[in-house]
Every structure is written in C-alpha cells, then in structure tokens.
Design goal:
3 domains; MgtE N-terminal fold; mainly alpha; three-stranded mixed β-sheet; CBS-domain; Tetracycline Repressor, domain 2
C-alpha cells in the first residue's frame, strides 16, 4: 500500500487533531513503507490519548514497527493513556533514553499507575530513570496496598499555613518552581502538617490580598486514609462532587492528594469491571490475543456448563411426563427464559446499587418487597398472555393454566434471586458482580423447569 492509494478528503485539515479512519489508514501505509518522516507528520497533530488509541488499534507487528520509526513521539502522557494490556510491550520496545525522558515528566501518581502493571525488571528500568527524590516518592507510594488511596495519590501537594492571607499565598506560589502540572486547591495545614481545609484557586484569585485563607475555605472537606480502598475514594468524589481530596497517614498527617481525574478513572474502571464480570468475560481488552481471551472466559463458561447440567438433571426427572405430553418440551424453555431475563434485570440494578451504596441495610427490605411485587405483577401479565397463546397453539386449556402458573412462580423466584443473591454474596465478602450471574441463572432454570413440569404432572396427568 502506498500514500497514493489513500484518497484524502478535499475538506480535510491536516492540523485538525483526532484519530479518524483516514489517518489510521495513512499511518498504516507509512508504517508499511517504513516512511518515518511521513509517519511523524501524520501523528504530529494527535493528542497523547489519540496516539495511545492508535497503538491499541494496530496489530502487534505494526506496533513494533511504529515504535522503531517514531519512538521519540512516545512521551509520558502516552504511556499513562495506554491500556495496561500493551503498556509493557511498548515500554520494552522503547530506547532507555526515551523511556527515561517520558517517565520524568509524569507526576508520581501516574508513574505508580504505570508501575503497577509491570513485571519487576521493567519496574526497575523506570525507577532507575527517575530523579532520587521522585524515585523515593514513588517507592513510598508503591509500599501501600494495591487498589488503595496511597497508590492513587500524587505526592506533590500545594499547602499553606492556616493563618496565611491570600496575598502571602499568591506570592509563595509565584516564587516556587516545583508546582504540580495540575492542582485545584491549596491545602490548609496546621503546625503538625494535618490538613484542615481546602481553598480553591478561583477563590484565591478573586479575594482581596488581606483575606485570611481560612475565611474562604470550601464548605465540603474530606480527608482519606492512604490505606483506604480506592473504590471508597471514587464514591466520595462522586457523592460529594469533589475536585481534589487530601490523603493522610495513620497520624492524620498530609502525605498526598488525589485529584478528580484519578478518581473518575477509578469510577470508570469499576463500572467497566462490573459490566464485564456480569457478562462473565473477565477483565480483558480488545488488545488481548485469543489465548488470553480464552483463559479469561473459560472458567465462567465452565460454571455455566455445570449449571446447565443441573437444569438438565431436573428435566430428566420428568421424562415420563414429557413423553406423554410433547407440548411441554416446546413450552418449557419459555418459562426458564423469561425468568432468566427478569433475574438479569434485577441483578443489574442490585449490583449497580451496591456499587454506589444506594442499596443499604435501611432500605433493603423495601427494595425486596418492591422486587417481589413487580415480579408477581409481571408474572401474572405474562401468564395471561402465554396462557392464551398456549391454548390456541395446542388447543388444550389446561396447558395454558400450567404455563401461566409456572411463569408466576418463576418470575417471583427471579425477582428474589436477582436481589438476594448479590446481597448475600456481598455480605459474605465476595464481589457480587463476579459470581451472581451463574447462581441467578441456575435458580431461574431449576425453578422454571421444575415448577412447569411438576405442575404439568399434577394437573394434566
């Protein structure tokens, strides 16, 4: 493929950033032609997130060729944006001087985020590229438990004594050259370096120089222990609309700060993780190869196989009933399917409510009764619909009665299972998103098949 084979749109602006289809095709053509100059021209207007997306979209061979031709276009922001599934591969391919320059420009929290997903040899390479003070800060952060606030925070903080004025603060900020690339608050601290309030930069810039900082503090102020789980961080940011939050040690002394971008990343990861786990596909990405994808999905497919065998065992108990009334074999999947769909709806709501802490002990009973009521109501409505359909389909009124009764029973069971199973799993310390799906499916299949075939045997025979 050559550049001439790629038709450029007439209205395209080469300086317009963004990873459109034309640019991806042109980049692939430049990689194939080993045209480093053309490749650099094409990626020059792209943001770090666009380059990271590009590296995730192209094949492994194209990625290696890209890094050979344009390694110096990979900076710290690109490494930070990369999906963890290919980050190690990119780091291994980069020249040491390029890698060193890339990580030196990152804040400590971004370096920690990169290190978490790497093997020890790659971690040593990155740590060796840092300045002594930065390396110590990163190592201290890495000493905190995985998925904790200490891993999430950046060590670079902007502080001021509680008795300073706005004028003193502005003069101080202008006189130092180590300010973080992004910060939103000046943290007020007492003489023991314990945070006691936040002042936004907007309030500092709009207040008179003589104003005391403690007079313009934010009304909503939280601190969080460095050992607290990061999902608690995401909850606080989302619940109270925070922009940044100080992190403290066991003595309540300031050790770092978490900013909204890191908290929202955690929230996005939690959402993605719940969705993937509910579907039983693990935590993979589109960059994973087929072997990794197979390993991630096999365990839950195997669990589903076992639950299907259990449901089939229930059916085998009623072979005599099915052999006498063949219509039952046609209708019984409908009962199980409706129950499974209803349970999945309730399960999704319950898992999300647990993640956001909106489902608590105080409202659990009310929510359970609501799910029971809607399950029975939907069951009755679908029972009437299926009863009429079964009557006209097979010409036997009692078959319609049987399937209607079975559907009410299974919808009731589905409503309970969709809520109680994730609640029970969380109570026992398990992730409700990880294991609920298999248990819920088992309940609705077993209850659906058993109730339908048992009622058929009792009523029709």
């Amino acid at each position: 493929m050559t550049d001439e084979m790629i038709a450029e749109p007439d209205l395209r602006d080469d300086d317009q950033p963004g990873l459109d289809n034309w640019r991806v095709d042109a980049i692939r053509a430049a990689i194939e032609a080993e045209d480093a100059a053309r490749l650099n021209d094409l990626i020059e207007p792209l943001y770090a997130a666009d380059i990271a997306d590009l590296l995730e979209q192209i094949s492994g061979g194209e990625r290696r060729a890209f890094l050979r031709l344009s390694a110096r276009e990979i900076d710290g922001d690109v490494l930070s944006e990369l999906d963890e599934s290919i980050r190690e591969e990119v780091i291994e391919a980069l020249p040491h001087d390029v890698l060193a320059d890339a990580v030196r420009e990152l804040d400590s929290d971004d370096v920690v985020d990169i290190l978490e997903d790497l093997e020890e040899p790659q971690q040593e390479i990155i740590l060796g590229a840092l300045e002594d003070a930065d390396r110590v800060a990163v190592q201290q952060a890495m000493a905190y438990p995985e998925y904790s606030a200490g891993r999430l925070m950046q060590r670079e903080t902007v502080t001021a004594p509680e008795d300073w004025t706005v004028g003193q603060t502005i003069d101080h900020l202008r006189s130092i050259d180590w300010l973080p690339d992004q910060f939103y608050h000046v943290i007020l601290v007492d003489p023991k370096m314990r945070p006691i309030g936040n002042v936004t930069l907007g309030r500092i810039l709009s207040a008179k120089r003589a104003t005391k900082l403690r007079e313009i503090c934010e009304e909503v102020f939280f601190t969080i222990k460095a050992t607290e789980e990061e999902k608690e961080v995401a909850y606080l940011f989302n619940q109270y609309h925070l922009i940044s939050m100080p992190v403290v040690d066991e003595a309540d002394r300031l050790v770092g700060v978490i900013t909204i971008d890191d908290a929202m990343n955690v929230l996005d990861e939690e959402h993605e993780e719940d969705i993937l786990r509910l579907a039983g596909v693990g935590e993979g990405s589109l960059s994973d190869n087929w072997i990794e994808t197979t390993k991630q999905r096999f365990p839950w497919l195997f669990v589903n196989l076992l639950t299907a065998i259990l449901a089939s065992g229930v059916i085998s108990l009623f072979e005599g009933t099915i052999s006498k009334i063949v219509a039952l074999a046609v209708l019984m999947p409908i009962v199980a399917s409706q129950g499974g769909n209803a349970a999945t709806q309730g399960l999704a709501v319950a898992v999300r409510a647990l993640a956001t802490k909106s489902l608590t002990r105080s409202n659990a009973l009310r929510v359970i009764w609501r799910e029971i009521a809607q399950g029975v109501a939907n069951g009755v409505m679908f029972a009437v619909i299926m009863g009429i359909i079964a009557y006209f389909w097979f010409g036997q009124p009692m078959i319609g009665v049987v399937i209607g009764m079975a559907m009410v029973i299974n919808m009731f069971a589905a409503a309970l299972a969709g809520l109680l199973i994730p609640l029970g799993l969380e109570k026992m310390g398990f992730d409700p998103a990880l294991a609920s799906g298999a248990f819920v499916t088992t309940v609705t299949d077993v209850v659906g098949f058993f109730s339908f075939l048992w009622l058929a045997g009792m009523i029709l025979l």
